[in-house]
């Protein structure tokens, strides 16, 4: 399928994610775009690369203040860099959530006490597709209900 090729929809590669150290047999499971990371104060749009060992996020839009709907200054931005990674082995819980009174979000809890709220602007169908691939990929996630 188009999701599993080494080239993404824009014709670029996943080199941004390969800047991280990958496991020996790590491979791409799926690509999801657009995906928003939402915090109490801000949200930022980007794309997610799901692999057999991790979840990679690349910021493609500006970080926006939830209250003012204006871009956040670079000095006060939540994310230090535009690219981030979370190891699936550290994932402890996954819950379906609402965002803006709609259900297309997932909250992921990681063993280092961090949580990550992913909103799928494309709707519940995109969220469910991501969740299905996550559950099929991650041994820990198979026991986790959404």
Description of the molecule:
The protein has helices at 15-18, 124-137, and strands spanning 28-38, 42-51, 54-59, 64-65, 83-87, 91-99, 102-110, 115-119. Strands 1, 2, 3, 4, 5, 6, 7 and 8 form an eight-stranded antiparallel sheet that branches. It contains two helices and eight strands. The relative contact order is 0.17. Mean pLDDT is 84; it is low at 1-6. A hairpin with a 4-residue loop joins strand 7 and strand 8. 12% of the residues lie in helices and 39% in strands. The protein has 146 residues and is mainly beta.
Count of helix runs: 2
Describe the global form: globular
Poorly predicted residue ranges? 1-6
The N- and C-terminal alpha carbons lie at a distance of 25 Å
In percent terms, what proportion of residues is strand? 35-45%
Radius of gyration: 15 Å
Report the count of strand segments: 8
Q: Give the biggest sheet.
A: 8 strands, antiparallel
What is the residue-averaged pLDDT?
Answer: 84
From N to C, what is the helix and strand string? HEEEEEEEEH
- Helix content range of the residues, please? 10-25%
């Amino acid at each position: 399928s188009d999701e599993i090729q080494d080239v993404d929809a824009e014709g670029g590669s996943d080199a941004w994610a390969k800047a991280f150290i990958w496991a020996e047999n790590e491979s791409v499971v799926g690509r999801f775009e657009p995906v928003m990371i939402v915090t109490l104060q801000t949200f930022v749009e980007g794309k997610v690369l799901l692999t057999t060992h991790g979840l990679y996020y690349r910021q493609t839009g500006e970080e926006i203040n939830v209250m003012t709907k204006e871009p956040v200054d670079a000095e006060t931005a939540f994310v230090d860099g535009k690219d981030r990674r979370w190891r699936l082995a550290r994932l402890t819980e996954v819950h379906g959530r609402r965002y803006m009174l709609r259900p297309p979000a997932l909250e992921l809890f990681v063993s280092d006490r961090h949580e990550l709220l992913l909103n799928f602007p494309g709707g519940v169908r995109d969220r469910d597709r991501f969740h299905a691939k996550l559950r099929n990929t991650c041994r820990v996630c198979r026991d986790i209900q959404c």
